[in-house]
Structure prediction request, 448 residues.
Amino acid sequence: MSEAATGPVRFTGTSDQVIDWLRANGVQRVRIEYCDYGGVARGKAMDIAHFERSLHHGIAFCATVMAFDISANVVLGTDYGENIGYADFIAVPDLSSMRILRHEPDTALVMGTMKWPDGRLVEGEPRNVLHRVAKRMDAMGYGARCAPEFEFFLLDSEHERLDSGLQCYSMQKRTQFLAEEYSLLDAVAAHGELECSHYEWGPGQYEVSIRHRPVREMGDDGHLFRATMKEAAMQMGRRVTFMAKPFDKMTGNSCHIHMSLVDGDGNNAFAAPDEPQHINDTCRHFMGGVLARLTELTAVFFPNSNSYRRLVPGAFAPISLAWGVDNRTAAIRLINEAPAATRPELRVCGGDVNVYLALAAYLAAGLDGVANKTDPGPPAEGDLDEQDVTRLPDDWGEALDRFEASDWAKDWFGEEFCRNYALIKRYEYDDFRREVPETERARYVEWL
Prediction:
């Protein structure tokens, strides 16, 4: 990284101070952004004068962007498109999310809180969904700290592999693309304290871990980490993909999410050094809630057709509805080496998750387990891929069926989100079913 500040430069003042702060940091342009259901970063850039004029009212966007599929096709029937005449919603700058970018000179970025022109929240927008769940957490007297670990492939400008061979943790492999790695890590350091990075199992694959933050803030940081990584790669003539399974018969990209609840004093609410597995009932119930709701939430944790390509045995992508102590084949891996850092790690997600929605789903399920004292059962042992254990749904259609039938999901995330998310993902699923992949055609066309 450069000799400049190695971590984020964030704004911590009031609206009366923000313009002076921007100018003092040499900022000439401000990006205001939000996130659609596919996890795509969308927004506008403006000079400081226009940002100052828009500071309190916000910036208008066509609400139909929330009706996009992953290819930006407009899905009919949502609350955001033709039914409202393709009208606007407003992105009101959330100044607590403002930070200075490192890959775009003289530019700051702020996330928008999405509202309708009359001031109502757009309840189905992913960031608002996370904040909805976090409010229920607040009411229960907890906070949550979380940290994702992102895996991605570094590719050439045509999205093809730059490397070959499998050498996980190889420092020699890492130095092969050291200039690219330094530039990418420098860019994403705008969004969090980067703890570790390493060369992963796949050729040209990397993993980066971010230091834990409160769940609301990590929603922004995690989303922007991915978006900035892709932008920075393009600037150097490379590409990065977080696609869950970008290459046939090869490891995929994961997004492991570490999460712990904290009490009102900021202490870890899960640790109990003298108890079995060194955890208390709060931690057990949290894990129990996640396991109990995973089948209803599979369509959130596995949002795309390609997500389900990871769900095969022996690929370090957990497929079993179980928890285990330091067991990487379980859906939840309990890490209990130190009381202050005791936490469950959700290992099922691919790198393609919508970060806001994945955090919201993980947190909501865990809190529900705490509230209902859900028993997770005993910890599983050994390689669960080789055992007769209840599995996650491995079919996108079945996952969507379970999500749409879940009254629990509607209660926690809101009917507006559940209705629109399911409609868009069902559209993508139906489109997927109508396509014949070239690999399938090549396998069968001669012999059938």
Observations:
- The first strand starts at residue 29 and ends at 35.
- The chain has two domains: 18-122, 131-414+422-439.
